[in-house]
Amino acid sequence: MLGHHYTHSFLETAVASVNAGCNLELSYGLRNNVFMHIPQALAMGNITLQMLRDRVRPLFYTRMRLGEFDPPAMNPYSSLDLRVVQSSEHRNLSLEAAVKSFVLLKNVRGTLPLRAQDLSSQHLVVVGPFADNPRVLFGDYAPVPEPQYIYTPRRGLEMLGANVSFTAGCSEPRCQQYSRAELVRVVRTADVVLVCLGTGVDVETEAKDRSDLSLPGHQLELLQDAVQ
After folding, report:
1. CA 155, 160, 161, 163: dihedral to nearest 10 degrees?
2. CA dihedral defined by 184, 189, 191, 194, rounded to 10 degrees?
3. Highest-confidence range of 15-19, 80-84, 85-89, by mean pLDDT?
4. Nearest-5° Cα angle at 25, 19 to 69
5. Which domains does the chain have, with CATH numbers?
6. Fewer CB within 10 Å: C terminus or N terminus of the chain?
């Protein structure tokens, strides 16, 4: 509310939020939070103690039902570690979810799927800022994964035994610096070219909007050169 000029201070924001029924803040940090001003609002009479208790009660009731205040021995998840989370069963399920989440918009002349038995006789080229950059493959509010479990398009194809060449063309999604000559040199020898483009959190995320839907920087030029 402060950022949208509905209020003029954290104190005003705390009062307006509590009066509106809000009982939980997505905080700015550890020290400078809006709801840290609730005691001041209470002392000034902007909110009442009964109102504060009414807001807190459902919040803590929910946290209790979730077991946040239970001893660790009562929490069935407290004994889980990476050996369980990254077990083969869970990783296979993640792979299945990833495979089934793809959306195929167009499949000219039945190009896809690429058949594993044909890959050894073909030269594949993977290009683009998303072709082999694990950092940019995850969206906003995504977890921080272990690097060893991240499979970029380049890494995935190489695991299939394919003859793969790679050049990013531009190393980051903003694609301000584009190596056209290198891309053309690598693509010229290919049987199949996979172009990996997009935006990612470097370009757009919460509180970072764009004025148009164009590909960032030289990405469109990269695509056109690869096709040409």
Report:
1. -60
2. -30
3. 15-19
4. 110
5. 10-74 (no CATH), 109-226 (3.40.50.1700)
6. C
Q: Which two tokens stand for residue 16?
A: 């307006």
Band (pLDDT 50/70/90 cuts) for residue 79 is confident
Nearest to 131 by CA among 106, 157, 109: 157
The pLDDT score that the predictor gives to residue 30 is 64
pLDDT digits (tens, 9 = 90+) for 11-59: 999 999 999 999 999 876 667 789 999 999 999 999 999 999 999 999 9
**Please, what is the angle between helix 10-20 and helix 49-65, to 10°?**
70
- Say if CB 25 and CB 60 are below 8 A apart: no
